[in-house]
């Protein structure tokens, strides 16, 4: 349940299409002691006025799962977030997989004509889990910051990434930065948007791992230290979301200070943040967003506050000059533990005089800890969307903060086979290959072209590019092969990666950023080839739903295809034809697999139905 910015209505989730059932599956009629769980049904999003003047309105319902799906396998809503003006609602869902994937949808909350719910735009299908309560919109409502968690990815395992999504259909999606390991999930998104009306509206401040300092230590103790590496210190960074050049889009570090957390914009020229001191106290710092210069404001939280916990973060109520410190207690095996740690704990911190914490006179004031003892707020995964406003309500009824405060791929460590090694016997020619070659613009003999190996150094311009992208660019390698089939040979995989869009369409950490493949379609369009993608009657992208439909699409030309489970991480490949038992493919993994039975395609490979091709 999340409160709208104007405080007049709430959005909430129920199973099924009845508004009188809570998200936990209990009827709201009668007491919980006498309630019984409801049958699992697709979840529905509702909005309702707090004064009861209107009945709840259904604004979105998840599609019904197939008959083979169990409640565990079904898609579930895990987070809701209001746009600052209250006219739109962001819905984040989790598809259990494997692999886990997340959808982000944008709903128009304003009443629609008739009884039908408002339309929903699917903005992205991310090949990773989005952490509940990590969605933070900027004050203008243009951008949404998110933290993703990839259990298995090309860049490593258990990765946390900061992403930014433009809140419009077809908007930009950007993988901004690595923000640490899933072993220490932040209790709140470690980001800060500039205040409303700022000249720097498209800048995002965030906390991430600081570059490791070189060590002069050695000897026996140095060896043991290397065997037990400590978690890297954190630093403060700034990302420019409007930058057009790749180099300018890279986040820059603000100064050299470490272990600041919970940043907030005090003004257009000042950031505030907390930092742990050597004596165990927490200090409030002022940070210059241009130079990174840090000034100690002389404000302290007592030693021992929020110690022995992980993911320490802060949510700010700028209007009232208060901060809610959030962290995960050590996981003692509690069934109600939050993802990434134990129960959520909270400390409310505020000045003795309202507004003084973020106002003047900081050097003369001591920080008052309103909640000294940790309040254990056990947040089940499925209800983590309760939001900051509800937590604040539990902690004392403060208002919610303003917005300003507030694939494919073998793992790098996995051995890669030499080119030409075949995972299954190679079939010389498809029984049913794509016909009418000239009509589709395909070159003569296109189906006989050898696969492109994404792990071969010769396919990259530099050693650095090869090391960076070889485990993550299967989608770019598939695109490269497809372009060659249409007579557009690329000079290297670097060119294909540039077409997909480093950081916006593809990431060296998690591969293709949107599993539906729109970045691949844009790349084809950029080369003068009209992309074809399956779409529903309302124009929304959709996956192919059957073998027969896949065959019909292959009859029109080769397809870029998403193998969501292949190699444990997902893998894009090219489908070139089919027979009665399976599909003929070209695969860039180095295993040179050229044929997949239908059972293997939909089983081990996990073909999701998402495809991209070239229109006739």
Percent helix range: 10-25%
Outline type: globular
Structure class:
mainly beta
Question: How many helical elements?
Answer: 10
- Quote the beta fraction: 25-35%
What's the number of structural domains? Answer: 3
Largest sheet: 7 strands, antiparallel
For the record, give the distance between the C-alpha atoms at the N and C termini, rounded to a whole number. Answer: 48 Å
If you compute it from the alpha carbons, what radius of gyration comes out, rounded to the nearest whole angstrom? 26 Å
Give the overall average pLDDT: 78
Poorly predicted regions = 21-38, 67-72, 223-228, 333-339, 360-439
How many β-strand stretches? 35
What is the structure about, briefly put?
By secondary structure, this protein is mainly β. It is 12% helix and 32% strand.
Q: What secondary-structure arrangement, pairings included, does this model have?
A:
Elements: E1 2-3, E2 9-15, E3 43-49, E4 57-61, E5 75-82, E6 88-95, E7 101-108, E8 120-126, E9 129-130, E10 136-137, E11 143-153, E12 156-166, E13 173-181, E14 191-192, E15 203-209, H1 219-227, E16 234-240, H2 246-249, E17 252-253, E18 260-267, E19 270-276, E20 282-287, E21 294-301, E22 310-317, E23 322-328, E24 344-351, E25 367-369, E26 375-377, H3 387-395, E27 432-433, H4 437-440, H5 463-469, H6 474-485, H7 493-500, E28 506-507, E29 511-512, H8 518-526, E30 531-532, H9 547-554, E31 559-563, E32 571-578, E33 582-586, E34 595-597, H10 598-602, E35 607-614
Antiparallel strand pairs: 1-2, 2-3, 3-4, 5-6, 6-7, 7-8, 9-11, 10-11, 11-12, 12-13, 14-15, 15-16, 16-17, 18-19, 19-20, 20-21, 22-23, 23-24, 24-25, 24-26, 27-32, 28-29, 30-35, 31-32, 31-35, 32-33, 33-34
Helix pairs in contact: 6-7
